[in-house]
Design a protein that fits this description.
By secondary structure, the protein is of the alpha/beta class. The protein is built from seven helices and seven strands, in the order βαβαβαβαββαααβ. A seven-stranded mixed beta sheet has the order 3-2-1-4-5-7-6, with helices on both faces.
Length: 229
């Protein structure tokens, strides 16, 4: 399966730089096609440093600034920071309710998130976000899930497509031949993370080549797409 246009996309991820690493080429391409994209960053990556001298608070501030710069590089409409503690996300009812509220507020046609079933995925935040997003999408459709949200003028909302990025079992590919350089430019804005990858461009190109091979594409990002309506 190849691309199918949707006009509004919400990218819901665990940490700053997750959107660009997992789907930056796709986001750049979709934005160029006129789609509106927003990010939801569930944590600010406050533990994402190898430097014991930097505090979590300072790290969160730095990574939020980097994420905003990367989003501007691509033309993303908005970044929403939920500011949960890095490494401590849980796919519980409160988290599902929080995401459901955002879905009802922003009413995206498509959602991109982590694949919670990715084999050997060691980061608990990625699993938690993917699981919570699925539950929130299901809840958001119906009146009697989190009905207090509907007392403020919101309405149930049905997401049309869910895309699990870097999926265990991909069934959807986006050709990023025209947008790989924009993905790399956005990734370089995450200097606290990418400066320690000396071969960033070569590595991203190798990954894109490998992702595109099953679909016969020169450079791609792959997803597992679930049609919901």
């Amino acid at each position: 399966m190849t691309e199918q246009a949707q006009s509004s996309v919400l990218v819901i991820v665990a940490h700053p730089d997750d959107p660009e690493f997992g789907a930056g080429g796709t986001i750049a391409k979709w934005l160029a096609e006129g789609r509106e994209v927003r990010y939801v960053l569930c944590t600010s990556g406050d533990k994402g440093s190898w430097d014991p001298q930097i505090t979590p608070g300072a790290m969160a501030e730095l990574r939020e600034a980097e994420q905003l710069a990367a989003a501007r590089e691509l033309g993303v409409a908005e970044c929403l920071f939920l500011r949960h503690v890095d490494g401590e996300l849980e796919a519980n009812l409160a988290f599902r309710r929080e995401i459901s509220l955002l879905l009802r507020q922003y009413r995206p046609e498509s959602v991109i998130t982590h694949d919670p079933w990715l084999h050997y995925q060691i980061h608990p935040d990625h699993r938690a976000v993917g699981t919570a997003v699925m539950g929130a999408i299901a809840a958001t459709r119906d009146f009697w899930y989190f009905p207090e949200q509907l007392q403020n003028g919101l309405r149930p909302h049905r997401v049309k497509d869910l895309y699990f990025m870097r999926a265990q079992e991909p069934n959807f590919w986006v050709d990023i031949s025209s947008s790989l350089e924009r993905k790399l430019a956005a990734l370089r804005r995450h200097a606290s993370q990418t400066d320690r990858i000396p071969d960033l461009a070569a590595r991203m190109r190798r990954l894109a080549e490998a992702a595109g091979k099953p679909a016969g594409l020169p450079l791609a990002e792959s997803f597992h797409r679930v049609e919901l309506v």
